[in-house]
């Protein structure tokens, strides 16, 4: 693939239409409400009876219980009301194809387990790259009644409790199951927290063939919800992904139709793949700007120039914050350096005094960019974001009151060849940092202490001062344990849940995460 320009994700970033076609057809026969976009429309689905889990399928049992945030976080998270009162806003990009459950079946035998996590799933259509997904939403038990709405309410509650102001929802289609899920998400937000907002983000890859009148009518329909995101002056936020796919004249028609036909005043907050090339020509229509951003820790240095350009044009800036990116079906990944990308992109938002943040993404498991609690990461990346979010919103770093260690690593070496053999393997993106094989123990220390990493008979220890410190060691096979010791007492410890294998079955280049606060041992245990 060609080398992408600096600070831009190349066109392969979101092949939403081809992906939608692939997945939309794949989900025919699934429970209504689980479809994906197909050329601007969702294919209809018919209910399908649950089938036994095939032999060798990737099991996804219900995860163990975790401690609540009040006990799990290394700091005391301010009250939701306090965080929401800040003028700094934090949203997470919600991708409708991957809700908590697709079919309300037991997680060990549901659609994720049977078809998305297995190379043989969906009649082998994802076998060329070892299966569609490498992770899934943190499993939930089958629900009763309106289980889809209940699950969406749970996701809203999880995001709200982590300090987020809302979701930026990807509008993949304007009818069908994904569209219905958007409306249900907005209803769920209104039920859980009237202050939780859903910002409308038309996906201009998936909606490439849509005309201005049709899009305006659908946006007006969603704008009727009290949960719809608005600017401080009351105008509807329209934040299209890849806004430059349509010229400013086209977007001017959308805004004019919204106002004249539907009585809805709106302004753009476009999300560009190429911000510098489009800022000036979109400025008259826009209240703010954003870009999709990069996924490697060495590619975050353009934020200052972006924010300065936006401010010079009198616009607010929504800074992208990411954790990692690995796409089996597109054959590409970025080197995230354990939590280095997450920390660097959050620090960029703080240092540049960005107005808003977009976490990219809440739940796009096909691209491995999820912040949401997941099977393989638990709450690791969301909990870490709550720490930086607090600094971003309040202006002060929260005081560390509980020793906590987060351990991240891959479950295989970056150059390992999958045992099953696949026609397509992930290659490093051109503007990424070099691939590395490392374990990181990210320690939050309430006072000076010793931090240890133990794996495969090897131990590394460093004495560190109060604060946040990454301890990075070479990756070895087996599991890794991170520990914090002070005055001869172990105050925090956690071991990785998935061992590193020298010969993995499939290629999986995501970093898995665990937290001592959620599932490990803490002081006094």
Task: Write the SSE topology.
Blueprint: H1 16-26, E1 37-38, E2 41-42, H2 69-72, H3 80-84, E3 89-94, H4 111-116, H5 121-124, H6 147-161, E4 166-171, H7 177-192, E5 197-202, H8 212-223, E6 236-238, H9 248-262, E7 266-268, E8 271-272, H10 275-282, E9 288-291, H11 303-312, E10 316-321, E11 325-327, E12 332-334, H12 340-351, E13 356-359, H13 380-394, E14 404-409, E15 427-428, E16 438-445, E17 449-455, E18 458-464, E19 467-474, E20 480-486, E21 489-495, E22 512-515, E23 521-522
Parallel strand pairs: 3-4, 3-13, 4-5, 6-7, 8-9, 9-10, 10-13, 12-15
Antiparallel strand pairs: 1-2, 11-12, 14-16, 14-22, 16-19, 17-18, 17-20, 20-21, 21-23
Helix pairs in contact: 6-7, 8-9, 12-13
Q: Give the N-terminus to C-terminus distance in angstroms.
A: 51 Å
Strand order of the largest sheet: 5-4-3-13-10-9-8
Any low-confidence stretches, pLDDT <50, length ≥5? 1-58
Helix content: 25-40%
Largest sheet: 7 strands, parallel
In percent terms, what proportion of residues is strand? 15-25%
* Structural shape: globular
Strands, count: 23
Number of H/I helices: 13
Radius of gyration in whole Å, from Cα?
Answer: 22 Å
Task: Spell out the key features of this protein.
single chain, 525 residues, alpha/beta, seven-stranded parallel sheet, 25% helix, disordered N terminus
Describe this structure in words.
The protein is of the alpha/beta class. The protein has helices at residues 16-26, 69-72, 80-84, 111-116, 121-124, 147-161, 177-192, 212-223, 248-262, 275-282, 303-312, 340-351, 380-394; strands at residues 37-38, 41-42, 89-94, 166-171, 197-202, 236-238, 266-268, 271-272, 288-291, 316-321, 325-327, 332-334, 356-359, 404-409, 427-428, 438-445, 449-455, 458-464, 467-474, 480-486, 489-495, 512-515, 521-522. The strands form 6 sheets. A 7-stranded parallel β-sheet has the order 5-4-3-13-10-9-8. The longest helix has 16 residues, at 177-192. The relative contact order is 0.13.
């Amino acid at each position: 693939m060609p080398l992408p320009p600096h600070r831009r994700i190349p066109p392969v970033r979101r092949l939403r239409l081809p992906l939608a076609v692939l997945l939309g057809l794949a989900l025919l026969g699934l429970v209504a409400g689980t479809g994906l976009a197909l050329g601007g429309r969702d294919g209809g689905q018919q209910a399908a009876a649950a089938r036994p889990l095939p032999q060798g399928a990737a099991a996804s049992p219900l995860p163990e219980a975790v401690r609540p945030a009040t006990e799990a976080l290394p700091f005391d998270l301010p009250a939701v009301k306090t965080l929401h009162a800040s003028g700094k806003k934090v949203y997470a990009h919600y991708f409708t194809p991957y809700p908590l459950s697709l079919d309300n079946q037991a997680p060990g035998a549901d659609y994720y387990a049977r078809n998305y996590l297995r190379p043989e799933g969906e009649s082998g259509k994802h076998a060329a790259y070892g299966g569609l997904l490498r992770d899934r939403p943190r499993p939930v038990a089958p629900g009763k009644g309106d289980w889809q709405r209940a699950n969406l309410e749970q996701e809203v509650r999880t995001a709200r409790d982590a300090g987020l102001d809302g979701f930026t929802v990807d509008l993949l289609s304007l009818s069908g199951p994904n569209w219905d899920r958007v409306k249900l998400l907005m209803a769920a937000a209104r039920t859980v927290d009237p202050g939780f907002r859903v910002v409308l983000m038309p996906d201009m890859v998936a909606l490439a063939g849509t005309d201005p009148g049709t899009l305006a009518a659908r946006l007006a329909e969603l704008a009727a919800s009290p949960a719809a995101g608005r600017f401080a002056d009351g105008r509807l936020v329209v934040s299209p992904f890849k806004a430059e796919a349509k010229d400013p004249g086209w977007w001017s028609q959308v805004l004019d139709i919204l106002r004249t036909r539907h009585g809805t005043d709106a302004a753009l907050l476009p999300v560009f793949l190429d911000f510098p090339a489009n800022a000036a020509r979109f400025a008259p229509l826009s209240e703010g700007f954003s870009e999709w951003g990069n996924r490697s820790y060495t590619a975050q240095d353009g934020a200052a120039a972006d924010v300065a350009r936006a401010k010079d044009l009198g616009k607010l800036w929504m800074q992208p914050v990411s954790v990692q990116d690995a796409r089996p079906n597109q054959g590409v990944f970025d080197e995230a350096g354990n939590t280095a990308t997450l920390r660097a992109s959050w620090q960029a938002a703080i240092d540049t005094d960005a107005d808003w943040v977009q976490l990219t993404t809440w739940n796009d498991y096909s691209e491995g960019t999820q912040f949401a609690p997941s099977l393989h990461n638990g709450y690791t990346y969301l909990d870490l974001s709550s720490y930086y979010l607090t600094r971003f919103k309040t202006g002060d770093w929260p005081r560390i009151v509980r020793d906590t260690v987060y351990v991240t690593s891959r479950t295989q070496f970056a150059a390992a060849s999958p045992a099953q053999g696949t026609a397509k393997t992930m290659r490093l993106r051109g503007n990424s940092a070099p691939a590395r094989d490392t374990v990181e123990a990210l320690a939050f220390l309430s006072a000076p202490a010793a931090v240890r990493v133990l794996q495969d008979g090897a131990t590394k220890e460093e004495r560190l001062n109060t604060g946040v410190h990454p301890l990075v060691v070479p990756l070895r096979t087996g599991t890794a344990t991170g520990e914090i010791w002070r005055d001869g007492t172990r105050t925090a410890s956690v071991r990785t849940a998935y061992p590193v294998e020298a010969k993995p079955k499939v290629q999986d280049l995501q970093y898995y995460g665990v937290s001592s606060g959620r599932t490990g041992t803490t002081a006094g245990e």
